[in-house]
UniProtKB/TrEMBL annotation:
This is 3-keto-5-aminohexanoate cleavage protein. InterPro entries: Aldolase_TIM, BKACE. Keywords: Metal-binding, Transferase, Zinc. Its cofactor is Zn(2+). Pfam families: BKACE. It comes from Sphingomonas lycopersici. GO terms for molecular function: 3-keto-5-aminohexanoate cleavage activity; metal ion binding.
Length: 354
């Protein structure tokens, strides 16, 4: 992405898209009963409350009534339908892990992502979500790496079985699965939202585009949670933003008390933000922070920065929901990427003429 002399001025930046992840599948309801509802009506109402607070993208997971993370697509269908009915404008982004939560403390060893074929079935959800997040490249996902004992010690993650399971978790996202998943999502008219852990992931996405394996808008989230992913070092996400194609959108995501400072820097840089209890249970003072309170905090700071909050219609336009391209050449041009090298061409390829 390019930064000009006026790029830090709010009038030159897109309106701010706020993604909220309010379902927190890694937590047990007892960890934050004030903000984790297990009923279907309560989960739908959570989306409504977050939308009313200013979030236009809902990162969606689903729970069973016993509090465990749901792995049943029928429950996801029910939740999506309920959210569509109550807040039809909201962008529904289904978490591509479905739910990595174990069934119980005793099943801690099962805290892992589901099979390739089950994850492919996200392309068959009814009603259809706007987006499904997709991981690229198999990666260690130790979500405990940046959590202090003070943060997880009084939660279900203090259980030795769960702690070990989440510490050893791996994201399975090999080349064959990624290519097939992209094919199924785009065939279903669902936009992939790329959840990327480091620069090699971004380079892999660029190769997918250049080889014609993905032809559509690039909505990227840099996930700085450590444990096999980038850590919340500004040098990491600044390089990611610098290397992201000019026509892409970038959202920054982190964990626990890194969430707020990373989000503030994202807002200053003209990027987008994510908040919610999936990312942090706490504010900067160590107090519990609900997902709605996290959104309200973001909107207050955005106002001070002069950054307008995107409406749902504006967020759909920024993300180019429903848009797909017809060729590699069109995709590269729309994303502001240099064209592929022509046969026999020497030197550095030129960008498309404006």
């Amino acid at each position: 992405m390019q930064f000009l002399d006026d790029s830090l001025l709010p009038e030159t930046q897109d309106d701010l898209v706020i993604t909220v992840a309010p379902y927190g599948p890694e937590w047990h309801p007892d960890d934050f009963p004030e903000d984790i509802d297990v009923t279907m009506e309560g989960q739908i109402q959570k989306a409504v409350d977050c939308y009313n607070a200013g979030a236009t993208v809902l990162h969606l997971h689903c729970r069973e009534e016993d509090g465990t993370g749901s792995k049943h697509l029928s429950k996801f269908n029910e939740l999506i339908a309920g959210v569509r009915d109550r807040v039809p404008e909201m962008i529904i982004q289904v978490g591509g892990s479905i739910s990595f939560s174990p069934e119980s403390e005793e099943d801690g060893a099962e805290a892992k992502w589901l099979s390739d074929e089950v994850r492919h079935m996200l392309a068959e959800l009814t009603p259809k979500p706007d987006q499904v997040t997709i991981a690229v490249n198999t990666t260690q996902m130790n979500i405990m790496d940046l959590m202090s004992e003070a943060e997880y010690g009084n939660t279900s993650l203090a259980s030795p079985a769960l702690y070990h399971a989440y510490r050893e978790m791996v994201v399975p996202a090999g080349p064959q699965w990624v290519e097939e998943h992209l094919r199924r999502l785009t065939a279903a008219g669902i936009q992939p939202h790329f959840q990327l852990t480091c620069m090699p992931d971004l380079e892999t996405v660029e190769r997918l585009v250049r080889r014609g394996l993905y032809k559509g808008p690039l909505n990227l989230t840099w996930v700085g949670i450590g444990g096999g992913f980038d850590g919340p070092n500004p040098n990491n996400f600044m390089e990611f933003i610098r290397r992201a194609p000019d026509g892409a959108t970038v959202t920054l995501e982190s964990v626990m008390r890194n969430v707020l400072p990373v989000n503030v820097m994202a807002m200053c840089l003209g990027q987008h933000v994510r908040c919610g209890i999936e990312d942090t249970l706490y504010d900067q003072h160590g107090n519990k922070l609900t997902s709605v309170q996290g959104i309200e905090q973001i909107t207050r700071i955005a106002r001070e920065l002069g950054r307008e909050i995107a409406t749902a219609a504006e967020a759909r336009k920024i993300y180019k929901i429903g848009v797909q391209y017809n060729s590699v050449e069109e995709t590269l041009a729309q994303l502001g990427m240099p064209p592929n090298r022509a046969p026999g061409q020497r030197a550095i390829p030129n960008r498309y003429a404006a």
